[in-house]
Design goal:
heterodimer; A: 6-stranded mixed beta sheet; 8 helices; B: alpha/beta; Rossmann fold; 7-stranded mixed beta sheet; 6-stranded parallel beta sheet; 36% helix; 19% strand
Chain lengths: 189, 586
C-alpha cells in the first residue's frame, strides 16, 4: 500500500502549487505518483482540495474516507471539515489561520471557537503551524504555503529530496531564495 | 524520459507526437488546459474559437483539407458542437480528426452530468477512453491512426479525474508532420440528401469494420486475476476498481469503447464467475453486455449520480467494514464559491439587488455567483448564452400573463462572443423590452484567464484586432440612446445606468468595463490599494458587508477589511453612509 496525502484549504492559498512541488519531489525519489486536484467554481475563497498518492504502483488518484496518512489543512475550519479523511494513526498538519467564508461574514453561520483545542483532544499526531507569521518574518506572507510544505516534508521524512532543484523550476531570484528559506523554516520547525 | 503530466497535458503531448497540425477549442473546465498546452508547440496552429461549434467546424475543415486536427471541449460544449459532429460522422476525414470531450462526473464545475459516451453510438463515431495520463498520450496517437484508417472521427472521452490528475508519462519523439493532399470529392464532402443517403450505408460498414478492430486492438485488454469475479470497466473507473479488488478479480479494461468488442466481452463473461460492470454515470457498458445476453451487476449496486471512487465501489460490492473515523464536536460552516474581492461584477449585481420586481436571467461564468447571498440577484441559469434568449422568453411569458417583471439578462464578454450575439439580434428583431448587461472583464475568467475575441490577443500571445462589443451592439440595432457603457467600480454611474434601463420600454444594453481583478497586470497595478475602516466612525450598520465582498468581515465586534485580499475597488466606500471607509495605498 502506498502513502496518501490530502491537502485542503481555500482558493488563493497556494495549495495546488504546494502539492505539485511535493509530487515533483516524490518523482525525484523514483516513486509512482498520482496527484488529483479539484478547484470548484471560484478562483478565490472557495474550497480547494488536492490529493497526492505515492508508492511502488498507484492506481486510483482518489483517497478513501479514513485513508489519508497525512491531512494538510491550510485553514482551521477545513481541518474540521476533512478530519474524517484521516487514518486513525495519521498526522494532521493545521495552519493556524482563519478565513471567514461568506455565510460567516454575513452572519448566517458562526465561525467555531477552540478548534485547535478540540483537534488536540482527538488527534495524537497534530502539528499546528503559524505559517503566515513565519512567512512574514521571512519577508512575504505569500510563502506560507512553502512553510507548510516544509512541515509536511519533515512529517513524511522526505528531507533527502533535492528540494532546491525543484523550487528552481518554479521560482527565480529573490523569490527563489525566499521559498528555499520558507521550506527550511517549515522543515526545522 | 518520464514526466509528471496531467491528463490534459498528456493529450496535448500525444497530439503533438502524432503530428496534429490544427487544434481549436473553447475553454471549459475540465478541458481548458488541452489547448493551452497544444498552443505551446510552435508547429501546431492552435486557436481559441468563439464557441465549440466553431472550434469543431475549424477542425472539420482542417481535416478535409488534409491536416490531422483536434477539437477539445467540455461535455456540454459537445451539445453546442453537435451539429457538425453528427454530419462529420458521415463525411469522414482526410487528415485524422479527434474530438476530445471532457466530462465532469460529480459536476465540480458544470451545470449537468451528461455522460457523453452516449454520443458515440448516437452520432456513429469511434470512441476511446484513456484511464490515466500515459494512456491519454498513447491513445491520442492511436486515435489519429484509427480516424484515418477507418475514415471516421474519433470521440476521445475523458473525465475530470483523468484531465486533472497527474501521473508519470513516458514522452516520445513526434512523427513527421504531414498535411495530406486535398482532392475535390463532392459525394464525400457535400452532404446533400442524395449524397447522405448513399453515405449512411457506408457509415454502417465503417462501424462493422471497426467492430473487428475493437476485438483485436491493444486498447481493450484482459488482465487476469482471480476468475471468481470478472469486472468490465473503462476510464477512471478501472483505476478505482483495481484499487478495491487488486488481484482478487479479473478485468476487461475497455479503452476502445465504440463500437464495443463483443467477442472479447463474450470470451471474458463465459470464464468468470460473477460479472460486475463498474462505470461512472450511465449504464453504457452494462446495457450493451446485457443485450449480448449476459447477466451482470452494475447500476443495481452503483449510483448513476456523481463520481465513483474506491469507497463507493467497496461499499457496493464488499462486506461492510467498521471503520472508526476521526471527528470533533464542531459544526464547520459552509464555504460556497463567491465572487472574489474586487470582482468588477459585484457593482451591477449590488445595484440590481435594490429592485424587487426585477428578474435576472444569468449565464455560465463567474457571474453565475450573482445568485449567492447576500446579493441573491440571479433567477435563472441554463447554459451558455441563455441569459439573453431565455430572458426574451421570460419577458414574453410574463407579458402574455399580464405581468410586468423587468427582465435583465447578464453575461460576460466571452459568453457574448460565444452565443450572446444571436440572442441580442432576436431582442432587437422582435422588439422585446428587456435589458442585456454585458459584463466585460476583458478575459475568459472562470476557466482560468483565457484570451477571447475582445482581448486583442490570440492564444499564442500575438496581437490581433479587438472585436468591439459596443460596435456589435450598435450594429445589430440597439439604439445609441439605449446603450450605457460604465465603469462598474463607479457605483453612482452603475446605479444610474440600471435605473435608466429599468425605466426603458425598449431593448437596452449596459456594458460594464473593468478587467478581472485577478489578471496578473491588474493585480500588479492595484497591489498596494486597499480600503480601511475608521473604527471611530463605523456604526456597524453592515451596509458594506451586504455587498458580499469576502474581504470584509465583522470580527470580534469590529468591521475589518483584510488588506491582503482587498484591491481597493471602493464599492464598500461608496455604500457607507458614515464616511467610515477610505481608500489607501495610492
Amino acid at each position: 500500500m502506498g502513502t496518501n496525502v490530502l491537502f485542503v484549504g481555500v482558493g488563493g492559498q497556494g495549495i495546488i502549487l504546494a502539492s505539485k512541488l511535493l509530487a515533483a519531489g516524490l518523482v525525484q525519489l523514483g516513486y509512482d505518483v498520482k496527484m488529483s486536484e479539484i478547484h470548484g467554481m471560484a478562483q478565490r475563497g472557495g474550497s480547494v482540495t488536492t490529493q497526492v498518492r505515492f508508492g511502488e504502483k498507484v492506481y486510483s488518484p482518489c483517497i478513501g474516507t479514513g485513508e489519508a496518512d497525512v491531512v494538510v489543512t491550510f485553514e482551521k475550519v477545513e481541518a474540521v471539515r476533512y478530519l474524517g479523511q484521516l487514518k486513525p494513526e495519521g498526522t494532521l498538519i493545521v495552519n493556524d489561520c482563519e478565513i471567514y467564508s461568506l455565510p460567516v461574514v454575513i452572519g448566517q453561520e458562526k465561525y467555531p471557537e477552540n478548534i485547535i483545542e478540540k483537534l488536540k483532544e482527538e488527534v495524537k499526531e497534530l502539528k499546528v503551524v503559524d505559517a503566515a507569521n513565519i512567512a512574514l518574518d521571512l519577508g512575504n506572507i505569500k510563502a506560507q504555503n512553502i512553510v507548510i510544505l516544509g512541515v509536511l516534508v519533515k512529517a513524511l521524512g522526505l528531507e533527502r529530496v533535492n528540494w532546491k532543484e525543484i523550487l528552481e523550476t518554479y521560482f527565480r531570484g529573490d523569490i527563489l531564495d525566499l521559498n528555499v528559506k520558507a521550506l527550511d523554516a517549515g522543515i526545522n520547525l | 524520459m518520464k514526466k509528471l503530466m496531467s491528463g490534459n497535458e498528456a493529450i496535448a503531448r500525444g497530439a503533438f507526437e502524432a503530428g496534429c497540425s490544427v487544434a481549436a477549442a473553447y475553454p471549459g473546465t475540465p478541458s481548458t488546459e488541452i489547448l493551452e498546452n497544444l498552443s505551446l508547440y510552435k508547429e501546431i496552429y492552435a486557436e481559441w474559437s468563439p464557441n465549440e461549434k466553431v472550434a469543431l467546424e475549424v477542425a472539420c475543415g482542417a481535416s478535409i483539407s488534409g491536416a490531422r486536427s483536434l477539437a477539445a471541449m467540455k461535455h456540454v460544449g459537445l451539445n453546442v458542437a453537435a451539429d457538425p459532429f453528427f454530419t462529420m460522422a458521415y463525411e469522414g476525414v482526410n487528415g485524422g480528426l479527434v474530438i476530445v470531450s471532457a466530462d465532469d462526473p460529480g459536476m465540480h464545475s458544470s451545470q449537468n452530468e451528461q455522460d457523453n459516451r452516449l454520443y458515440a453510438p448516437f452520432a456513429k463515431v469511434a470512441m476511446m477512453e484513456p484511464a490515466d495520463s500515459q494512456e491519454c498520450k498513447g491513445f491520442i496517437k492511436e486515435a489519429f491512426e484509427v480516424s484515418e484508417k477507418y475514415d471516421i472521427p474519433v470521440l476521445f472521452r475523458v473525465t475530470t479525474r483523468i484531465c486533472h490528475s497527474k501521473g508519470l508519462v513516458e514522452t516520445g519523439d513526434p512523427v513527421e508532420r504531414v498535411v495530406k493532399d486535398y482532392k475535390k470529392d463532392v459525394k464525400k464532402y457535400v452532404m446533400t440528401p442524395a449524397h447522405a443517403r448513399i453515405i449512411h450505408y457506408e457509415v454502417e460498414k465503417r462501424l462493422a469494420r471497426l467492430k473487428n478492430y475493437a476485438n483485436h486492438c491493444p486498447l481493450n485488454k484482459i488482465e487476469w486475476g482471480s476468475k471468481e469475479i470478472g469486472i468490465v470497466t473503462s476510464g477512471i473507473s478501472y483505476q478505482h476498481a483495481r484499487e478495491v479488488f487488486g488481484n482478487n478479480a479479473s478485468y476487461l479494461k475497455i479503452g476502445f469503447s465504440h463500437p464495443l468488442p463483443d467477442e472479447m466481452i463474450r470470451k471474458f463473461a463465459q470464464v468468470v464467475g460473477k460479472l460486475y460492470v463498474i462505470e461512472e454515470n450511465e449504464p453504457y457498458l452494462e446495457h450493451h453486455i446485457k443485450s449480448l445476453g449476459f447477466a451482470c451487476v452494475g447500476k443495481e449496486y452503483l449510483p448513476i449520480c456523481e463520481e465513483l471512487n474506491p469507497d463507493i465501489i467497496r461499499k457496493a460490492f464488499l462486506p461492510k467494514e467498521d471503520k472508526k473515523l476521526h471527528q470533533v464536536d464542531i459544526q464547520a460552516p459552509h464555504r460556497p464559491p463567491v465572487l472574489c474581492p474586487g470582482c468588477p461584477h459585484r457593482g451591477v449585481y449590488y445595484a440590481l439587488s435594490k429592485y424587487k420586481d426585477v428578474v435576472v436571467t444569468g449565464d455560465i461564468g463567474c457571474y453565475t455567483l450573482g445568485m449567492m447571498p447576500p446579493l441573491n440577484v440571479t433567477d435563472v441559469v441554463i447554459c451558455m448564452g441563455a441569459s439573453v434568449s431565455a430572458g426574451i422568453g421570460f419577458k414574453r411569458g410574463s407579458m402574455q400573463g399580464n405581468r410586468n417583471e423587468k427582465v435583465f439578462g447578464s453575461m460576460g464578454d466571452s459568453t457574448f462572443f460565444h452565443s450572446g450575439i444571436t440572442g441580442l439580434i432576436d431582442v432587437v428583431y422582435n422588439k422585446t423590452p428587456m435589458v442585456l448587461v454585458i459584463l466585460d472583464n476583458s478575459i475568459t475568467a472562470m476557466t482560468g484567464h483565457q484570451e477571447n475575441p475582445g482581448t486583442g490577443k490570440t492564444i499564442k500571445g500575438e496581437i490581433t484586432t479587438k472585436v468591439d462589443i459596443a460596435q456589435i451592439v450598435r450594429a445589430v440595432g440597439i439604439k445609441g440612446e439605449n446603450i450605457r457603457i460604465i465603469d462598474p467600480y463607479d457605483l453612482t454611474a452603475t446605479n444610474n445606468a440600471v435605473k435608466d434601463a429599468y425605466h426603458s420600454e425598449e431593448p437596452f444594453v449596459i456594458i460594464t468595463k473593468q478587467p478581472c481583478a485577478l489578471i496578473k497586470e491588474v493585480q500588479k497595478k492595484r497591489a498596494g490599494l486597499h480600503c480601511v475602516v475608521d473604527q471611530e466612525k463605523c456604526t456597524k450598520c453592515k451596509a458594506c458587508i451586504r455587498t458580499g465582498c469576502p474581504a470584509i468581515a465583522l470580527k470580534h465586534d469590529r468591521v475589518e477589511i483584510d488588506s491582503s485580499m482587498c484591491n481597493g475597488c471602493t464599492l464598500c466606500v461608496q455604500v457607507c453612509k458614515f464616511d467610515s471607509i477610505t481608500k489607501a495605498g495610492e
